[in-house]
Design brief:
The complex is a heterodimer of chains A (342) and B (275).
Chain A (H helix, E strand, L loop, with lengths): L1 E4 L3 H11 L1 E8 L2 E6 L25 E10 L2 E6 L7 E6 L1 H14 L6 H9 E6 L24 E5 L3 E6 L2 H10 L4 E2 L2 H17 L15 H5 L3 H6 L7 H5 L6 E8 L2 E8 L9 E2 L2 E2 L4 H19 L11 H5 L6 H8 L6
Parallel strand pairs in A: 2-6, 6-7, 7-8
Antiparallel strand pairs in A: 1-9, 1-10, 2-3, 4-5, 4-12, 8-9, 11-12, 13-14
Chain B lengths: L8 E12 L2 E8 L13 E6 L3 E6 L10 E6 L3 H7 L6 E8 L14 E6 L3 H13 L7 E7 L8 H6 L7 E7 L9 E2 L2 H7 L7 E5 L2 H13 L7 E4 L15 E2 L2 E2 H4 L2 E3 H5 L6
Parallel strand pairs in B: 7-8, 7-11, 8-9, 9-10, 11-12
Antiparallel strand pairs in B: 1-2, 1-6, 2-5, 3-4, 3-6, 12-15, 13-14
Classes of the chains: A alpha+beta (342), B alpha/beta (275).
The structure holds flavin-adenine dinucleotide, iron/sulfur cluster (2 copies) and FE2/S2 (inorganic) cluster.
Amino acid sequence: MLKISKSNLNALYAKINETMGLFIPIKKAGEVNYAVWGEGKEVSLETLKTVKSPKNMFFPQTENMMKFKTEGKNIEIIDVRDEKRPFVLFGVKACDYKAIEVLDKVFLADPVDTYYKARRDATTIVTLACSKPEESCFCKVFDIDATGAYGDVTVWMDEENLYWQANTEKGEALTATVRELFAEGGEAEVAAQQSATKAIIDQLPFSNLDLSKFKPENLNELFDAAEWEEMSEACLGCGTCTFVCPTCQCFDIRDFKTHEGVIRYRCWDSCMYSDFTLMAHGNSRTTQMQRFRQRFMHKIVYYPSQNDGLYSCVGCGRCVNKCPQNLNIVKVIKKLGGKAND
Amino acid sequence: MIEETLIPKIGVVTDIRKDTPDVKTFRVVGTDGKKLFKHMPGQCAMVSIPGVGECMFSITSSPTNEEYMEFSIKKCGCVTEVIHALEVGQQITVRGPYGKNFPVEEDFKGKDLLFIAGGIGLAPLRSVINYVRHYRSNYGKVVIVYGARSKDDLVDIDEIQNEWVNEPNTDVYLTIDRPQEGWDGHVGFVPSYVKELGLDPNMTAVLCGPPIMIKFTLQGLLELGFDKSRIFTTLELRMKCGVGKCGRCNVGDKFVCKDGPVFRMTELDELPDEY
Ligand SMILES: Cc1cc2nc3c(=O)[nH]c(=O)nc-3n(C[C@H](O)[C@H](O)[C@H](O)COP(=O)(O)OP(=O)(O)OC[C@H]3O[C@@H](n4cnc5c(N)ncnc54)[C@H](O)[C@@H]3O)c2cc1C
Ligand code: SF4
Ligand code: SF4
Ligand code: FES
């Protein structure tokens, strides 16, 4: 294990930035989100939850996919995919890292999404272990260790130092470029912090939710549950929960006419919107209850059924904090998850 | 260039046939004059007019046709309206093939087959029927029941009346919803016609058409003693990607674009009723 004094972090960022792009939580207009690092930017690694998850590093909110030029009856397709400059995504929490693995199973499944893959291949992910989890966190429910070593490199931070450990070949390569800034050591400090943090996590209010009911074999029973009506009653269909969620991956594909041709782009979409499934002759989900049910069933029943039991919620708690109507997946799990959750 | 399924190929419209007042069939080849890609009966493709939009259509031509592909398209909205206004020689974009096909080489082989279609539902069935005709000796008796609102709404009537009816060991039954001048065939809805015909319940059945027709025809078949595990149908949900990634077309834990659009009735029974 390696360590560096926190007073020296700017030098670390600058060093990484010499060879690769650096995306890191940066405070801007009162909000912290992943953004390109540069001298003078206000880095905020202490912020537990960036407003937007890092998913937009791989799956941007909008992305041009191709261009068309038409002349008379002819069409030309212009490939706008470009080579991605290698970049480091720094400070990713364990839940958000696991969310990237959830997205991988969608975008990297055959046929591979080359837009997503190009960005994935170009990234080295540095995760940051949590030391101050908050009440809305429930990653433990999904067997995620907020203090554990995920990604290519993991760093732990205490009052004085940042501790660094490479986990993969990509991580080793990054380490080699910054090695000169580090000294050896930190094992004892990290171990102490890990056990202290785990003790806090065990005490969090949602850490002991019981998921045993959410199994593919209960799909129809859960789908038919009478409780959906009452749980979804207040839902505005605003889509906030889907936009802040690190695992929500629904997208739309649209065309945009410009004076140099047509641009086909994709953008985030939301199953919470009424026109999501609208067709020329009908709609498979006409009520907000159905759309609300779709979002949560997808997270804890449909996705696991398609992916060997892996849940597509990572317990980041963003939907818990952000829903204007105070609806969220924790309430759904408690309501439908049986007695153990009372 | 790295292969990307969302980036389409360019197709050229080489023939346009007006089947009914609101259905046209478009013949499409690649810019090299050859077929764009291979497919199996029941599979679909995303067709687009850049700047207008992309839509999913069944590939209605048979895979055994090695020269071109055909789409029978009903005019019902922004994109299909523009497609209907196309002229021969116009380029469009096509990507696919998407979805699971009818089990023509597995379940259907050696079986007596019953095809039931309503309206534009003939589009996916035409591909299977012509495939079965091509490999005729691999299949048993074929019965086709096809209905539409009026005689003018029967898609591909020329091919049906000139070719299908003359096929050995094949019965074709046509019906229209209401009596009409110049029509001396059967009048009535598909579901009741199917019951009247007293069909052999040991046949393997394929149903395609509007949801309401499927629902009542299925009831009729079950009353006649057909087995659900030998009845197939196709679902139609809103689609964008075609490959199980955009999250739009699921019914429960199945994506219609990837795990369908062809489903066995017993599979549908296990899914939530949300389609
Ligand atoms: C698997 C599958 C196979 C199909 N096969 C055929 C076929 O062989 N022939 C045929 O005429 N039609 C077929 N359809 C329906 C066809 O895709 C729609 O009629 C068409 O998309 C309508 O588009 P529009 O822009 O003209 O209508 P609008 O109502 O203006 O459509 C707006 C948007 O909604 C979407 N949309 C509208 N209706 C449907 C629909 N029924 N299904 C999916 N998306 C829809 C379109 O993608 C479009 O982007 C099929 C649909 C699916 C899913
Ligand atoms: S659950 Fe909340 S955040 Fe999500 S769409 Fe409904 S009101 Fe908006
Ligand atoms: S569903 Fe809510 S808690 Fe779960 S990953 Fe998404 S935003 Fe986080
Ligand atoms: S059309 Fe995108 S998931 Fe089926």
